Protein 1
Amino acid sequence: MPEEERMQQGDRMDVAFVLYPRMTALDLVGPYEVLGHQPEVTAHFVAASPEPVRTDAGLTIVPTTTFDALDRADVVVVPGGAGWAEVLAEGVVAAWLREVHPTATWTTSVCSGSTLLAQAGILDGRPATTHWALRDELAALGAVVSTERVVVDGSVVTGAGVSAGIDMALTLVGRIWGDERARFTQLVIEYDPDPPYRTGSPERAPAELVAFARGLFAAG
Amino acid sequence: MPEEERMQQGDRMDVAFVLYPRMTALDLVGPYEVLGHQPEVTAHFVAASPEPVRTDAGLTIVPTTTFDALDRADVVVVPGGAGWAEVLAEGVVAAWLREVHPTATWTTSVCSGSTLLAQAGILDGRPATTHWALRDELAALGAVVSTERVVVDGSVVTGAGVSAGIDMALTLVGRIWGDERARFTQLVIEYDPDPPYRTGSPERAPAELVAFARGLFAAG
């Protein structure tokens, strides 16, 4: 394949990365690294206010715009994180998602970010995935919960917990710009994972470890 | 294993995450997500000045301290990124590494961050890894370059390109707090990767794709 074809540029795309307090930074930065370097993409970091947002363990990110100011995006990425229940209670992210989703080409989530899509009505009766410890919560919000790592359903793409955002975004790059572009992106980020343990999912990890972790999640 | 034992707290640890312009955000945020939640850890984000640092594709991070103000850390994490050659030319990060490495328990890098360790003399004659496209550059700086995804040599741990920071940091958690803690961490971040393509390393990807990507790196 000639180089021109592999990197042929499509239409420009605005990608909105949602920020909120106590979000999980990796939920966002996995997809950011995969999507943000595509030559068509302008990345926006959107939050309730222009103030820097403190994520889960102290990393603090500066928004470039606000929910009030940004009324459309071609791609929306909603991360999860410890703050998801508070954000669900406030309803600000879901209200914004109701506004931008109808005209977005792709609406996506990672981890507990799926609960915010569900609150906005985007996952009603749809197959979707989430962090393994929150499958019941997502089902209660109306989604048809899958245990897959990435679920594509129409214009909605959901990823499982935290690190699954990388797989989700590579899948999305393949859908938007084609497999050759996605293969190239995977090589550039050297995504040839070699996890040191075999405990990355509740289906693989020892039951006793899963129960222990689930207990911590339930305790908040 | 009783829960108390699995999560038994050790001594507190200061982890310094290095920031510089045009760094690759995921190089830093992979290890941050793995290390930052350990109950012993205080995360510091250290840069040349207190001004927010713009990473590779626009994500902007707020430092919590500066190279002048922080003169020690138990763990140091140095990311790579498009800005590595400029930072190498300036020498500021390497100068700081020469100061903090002798008393650090662990000095680590991801991707081209290894070149900054090498410039500080930390990799002289040591086995180390880096982004696949920079193996020759790292060898020229004095390291004994490995193609492994993670290399542990004494107190120095290096990871391959970008996404390898997750594997690097999980390996490090195992060394610091034991395998049980690391298995738990891997489950919490649901690190059960399922890359959509088989092109994550130059050893797996088609030669023609590797040559294309290498050409882009050489062009800067």
Protein 2
Amino acid sequence: VNAQILTIGDELVLGQVVDTHSAYLAQRLATVGVRTFRHLCVADNVNAIAEAVQRSLGESDLLLILGGLGPTEDDLTRQAVAQALGAELILDPEWKVRIEERFHARGLDLPERNEIQAMIPRGARLLTNRLGTAAGFEATANGTRLVVLPGVPSEMKAMFEDHLLPGLSEAGDTIFVTRRLHCFGAPESSIHQQIEDLMKTGRHANPQVGILAQSGVITIKFVAEAANEIDARVKLDPLERTCRERLGELIFGRDGETLEVAVAKRLEARKKTLALAESCTGGLLGHLLTNIPGISRFFLGGIVAYSNAAKTELLGVPPEWFETVGAVSAKVAQAMAEGAGRKSGADVGVGITGIAGPEGGTREKPIGLVYIAVCVDGETTVERHQFRGMRETIKDRAAKSTFNLVRKCLA
Amino acid sequence: VNAQILTIGDELVLGQVVDTHSAYLAQRLATVGVRTFRHLCVADNVNAIAEAVQRSLGESDLLLILGGLGPTEDDLTRQAVAQALGAELILDPEWKVRIEERFHARGLDLPERNEIQAMIPRGARLLTNRLGTAAGFEATANGTRLVVLPGVPSEMKAMFEDHLLPGLSEAGDTIFVTRRLHCFGAPESSIHQQIEDLMKTGRHANPQVGILAQSGVITIKFVAEAANEIDARVKLDPLERTCRERLGELIFGRDGETLEVAVAKRLEARKKTLALAESCTGGLLGHLLTNIPGISRFFLGGIVAYSNAAKTELLGVPPEWFETVGAVSAKVAQAMAEGAGRKSGADVGVGITGIAGPEGGTREKPIGLVYIAVCVDGETTVERHQFRGMRETIKDRAAKSTFNLVRKCLA
């Protein structure tokens, strides 16, 4: 089974928004053995969309079409696909009732324009949308199964998983299974060197092994083609074992695991609670931790001590230190970590202080200088880092390095 | 002048890497009046690439081709483009010397495989690459100017700016200027209704006016085609004025302005400082605020009171309230906002408490229920919200609604 993906939108084609949907879908399709061989993106224009659809029909088993199902006059995908199929648009009365109900639930009448969201080409099958008002639809033409989904990310994903993925997983004869091992704390070249002999790329390598560096995290990626999950595992497990033997603690997680998830797992394993004292990250550490469902069992809270006064009042940092060692120093980081633990009764206290820029750097304390302290049961470890880049990059790297230190301190 | 962008790579078409190049180039092209109308992405396969090139020739003034110029056997763009042009690949001896020198500088001999990086189709013009070894090239066929650049981001960008952009800026007689107005606090359909008569889309509308909804923010987008910046402004300013008259406080910002930037601007205008008490957002509010350079003048700090104990100890919420009204209540939100202001001496205190899920919901207090309180100089406003979606969506909407309330309270 092979597939093409057609995304629609002026904002995409003009580059105002980066298309992440195509990559998401191609990756999900690969997991069930569907190979995507082309992405196409066109503007909100009936003729351009219809032409792209017509060109693509007959070329692939599956044609996924995304976006342009909203209620405004920019949203022209329904009309264009109907035109390409040579069918008229007809109203699905059941879906119209469903979207009326959604509006009524918010105390609103169904705006006339939203009625279009219940229209599909005659002969097509409506695909329900449990998160929004835009119905999707599917049809078959020239041997191609054509599936039209809204561009809203959550709706697109839910509908893809609800309506498309289950049938596809049953249909394919081989599947692609991807496994990723994430490393932090060493440069890509050093990790590359240690696993170079395992790396295979190209269409016929099985499993394929590659390396990807993204935002400081180095990911080793294995893709196995196999008849089923078990055969894939037989191919992947020895590779994963070899990588783990060679790279040890550099590997912090697998597949969807982030550094903060690695921290949460260590907290759970060691039955510890954690509290934060953030300065330069401004709340990012707490935000990332609280993206993890159920984290409230281990994460008690934190203090964003952005100003020096806050560091003193909320964390007990002696005010004279700002004159002597300065707010960005190992000593203040340590006092913040210990203060966070003490104030909240947590087993693990984390303190971070640094200069995210673009202002505030000096020759001795340049932009990107960050001190991280982790205090576990009264014992504190401090690290000094010098990051490069813009404000948001510095915050990101500082957050990752902090979680990495916490993880190591809880090993 | 119009353009198509063709990106090449297995990792792109299989979704292992998100294509950000197309958006980058389309945006840069728009600034010099070149309108991109199609993106296409195909795998590392000679026939697929050659076919895509052949199909696209004659359709546009400019065809940008990216990627597949490396030295490995996966890199097939040179061969494929030569095939599409019906030309053989020939070695550029000068460029071969240049890349030999690059290798020698690192104490290495030129690997045989890298010689391909100095080959271009006969009749094409070589484009130098000051950051890498892969030469680019350009040629004209069927009235289309075809430009081939490497996929390495830094090399692609440098070569685009060096070789392509200067000529294009001189050639174009018009430019495209985009302006965006961002709204929050009303559904897309209601905003649409209020500016419906202004909306014009399609290739010939000038300025084009459209609406985009993303993560709760409704954006009105104007694209003007004009001879120069001033002419563009003459077209855009009256439209912006009309939208502002009709939508008033619903509009929180323009172009790159986020809700948190709108808050920062109000704080600056009113000379106020702010402190946060976050529960369900877990630090997200602080993180977003501290992405703004220079925010330390207005943002003092915050408390992430994730546990009830933290709400009591750090913010002074009476512990018996957790039994009577519950942690997720207007009363607790108000106490948190007032506590945040009092503890840190800020003029504005913000409190937010809610249930982000996926656990912890009850019939009376379902997942997505959030109370937001903003206390300005002792006067507190509380809002109750019921959000839908996953944990991260609820956090995102809660954060946006909080900044929106702060903005309104500082109007």
